[in-house]
Design the sequence.
């Protein structure tokens, strides 16, 4: 299908556009995980259990994942710059609301609004870059864009640890200066574009079903250890999740005329895309479970303060940041699936190291740090290459839709990772036995992600370079 792109030309420097987009995506990704290290303080301040606080994470990730594709579709119709800037405002205002929250309910509510803004920003970010960068420089821009989210997520605990020392509210207030600066600069440098041929609307019913499916599954997994797995409410939630999931697929297969299905089922016929999305979802489940589990262990089992725990987790993020770009270059040479397989395997070894070596007495250098190094390198090798592997299977006209779907898969995986960890730990994350169960869960999920990445094969970064005219167009 031929589409007509409308662009507003500006005297823009690509470097400034990349800076604005990266800053906004960094904030959106950072807030997926920055609150992990604040859990102990949030529990004390708001008098809430870990299972109740899990919705501070899950409310964000579920909403973020479900709205990525609809936000991108709306941006195609009314303007990507307009939606991006509106998303920045929404995210920043909701961040202020989170900082002023008076209880778990209000905090979760503001986190949901925050996720709406994050979805608007993330869904439009790649298209804005592709409109700005010339073809010869797009691979580099995409590599930076892909790496920012993973590095931001990994940096959440150390940044959060520093901020929690002052107050958990600063975990959210820190977004305001960056969000305001990105908005002001973005007003001046971001080019406007939209797809004049796009007249369809997002399928809101399908989106609601997807939110229901993931939310009910997460609730069932979190509530199961407390209420009992044979409890009627827990069983009802799990069965409801299954039914809603089936309805999502059926709705996507027979979407009403004039709407865009919440799942682009035709794209999943491409083997590399389907396996890349699935591997990313499973890996992010392992990553989210690892991150929350390690925070609970360091602050509970070893009695670290929030700031000490945050700095204890720094080596992993540093290695992820250092290895992300070289890993992308390596994937371009030998194949993204192969490099991602190595990364997920290293991540599994890191979790197994903690399971085998960490004891009740704090032994950071010999017990915890080696696992951090393995996991950090694994993250760096994995995230960029899984993104590129999935994108390499997409035709140019499907790049925007496919990218949003891949991002949604990652965030839904993170939601399930948190829920699975809480189900496995069962409120016992501060004990060595509970932490060991969490690390074994992380290792098992990582091994599964590794097998899926290996099946992706030798997809290459170069395969995803679109032509200038076709890049931002969406799939039919």
Sequence:
């Amino acid at each position: 299908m031929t589409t007509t792109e409308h662009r507003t030309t500006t005297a823009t420097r690509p470097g400034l556009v990349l800076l604005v987009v990266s800053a906004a995506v960094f904030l959106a990704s950072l807030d997926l995980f920055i609150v992990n290290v604040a859990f102990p303080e949030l529990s004390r301040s708001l008098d809430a259990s870990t299972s109740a606080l899990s919705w501070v994470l899950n409310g964000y990730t579920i909403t973020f994942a479900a709205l990525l594709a609809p936000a991108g579709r709306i941006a195609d119709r009314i303007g990507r710059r307009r939606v991006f800037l509106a998303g920045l405002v929404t995210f920043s205002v909701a961040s202020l609301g989170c900082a002023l929250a008076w209880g778990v309910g209000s905090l979760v509510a503001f986190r949901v609004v925050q996720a709406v803004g994050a979805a608007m920003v993330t869904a439009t970010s790649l298209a804005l870059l592709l409109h700005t960068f010339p073809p010869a420089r797009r691979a580099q821009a995409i590599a930076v864009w892909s790496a920012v989210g993973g590095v931001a997520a990994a940096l959440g605990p150390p940044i959060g640890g520093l901020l929690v020392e002052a107050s958990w509210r600063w975990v959210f207030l820190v977004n305001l200066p960056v969000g305001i600066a990105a908005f002001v600069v973005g007003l001046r440098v971001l080019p406007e574009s939209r797809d004049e041929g796009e007249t369809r609307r997002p399928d809101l019913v399908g989106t609601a079903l997807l939110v229901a499916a993931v939310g009910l599954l997460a609730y069932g997994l979190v509530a199961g250890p407390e209420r009992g797995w044979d409890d009627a409410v827990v069983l009802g939630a799990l069965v409801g999740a299954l039914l809603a999931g089936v309805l999502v697929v059926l709705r996507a297969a027979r979407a009403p005329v004039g709407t865009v299905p919440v799942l682009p089922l035709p794209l999943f016929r491409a083997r590399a895309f389907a396996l890349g999305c699935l591997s990313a979802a499973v890996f992010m489940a392992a990553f989210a479970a690892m991150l929350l589990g390690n925070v609970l262990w360091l602050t509970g089992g070893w009695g670290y303060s929030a700031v000490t725990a945050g700095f204890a987790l720094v080596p992993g993020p540093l290695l992820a940041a250092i290895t992300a770009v070289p890993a992308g270059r390596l994937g371009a040479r030998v194949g993204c699936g192969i490099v991602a397989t190595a990364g997920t395997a290293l991540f599994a070894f890191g979790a197994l190291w903690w399971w085998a070596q960490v004891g009740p007495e704090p032994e950071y250098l010999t017990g915890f740090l080696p696992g951090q190094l393995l996991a950090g390198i694994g993250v760096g090798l994995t995230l960029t290459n899984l993104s590129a592997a999935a994108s390499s299977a997409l035709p140019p006209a499907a790049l925007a839709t496919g990218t949003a779907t891949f991002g949604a898969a990652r965030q839904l995986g993170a939601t399930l990772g948190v829920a699975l960890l809480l189900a496995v730990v069962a409120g016992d994350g501060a004990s060595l036995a509970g932490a060991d169960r969490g690390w074994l869960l992380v290792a098992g999920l990582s091994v599964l992600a590794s097998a899926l990445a290996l099946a992706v094969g030798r997809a290459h970064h170069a395969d995803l370079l679109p032509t200038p005219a076709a890049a931002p167009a969406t799939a039919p």
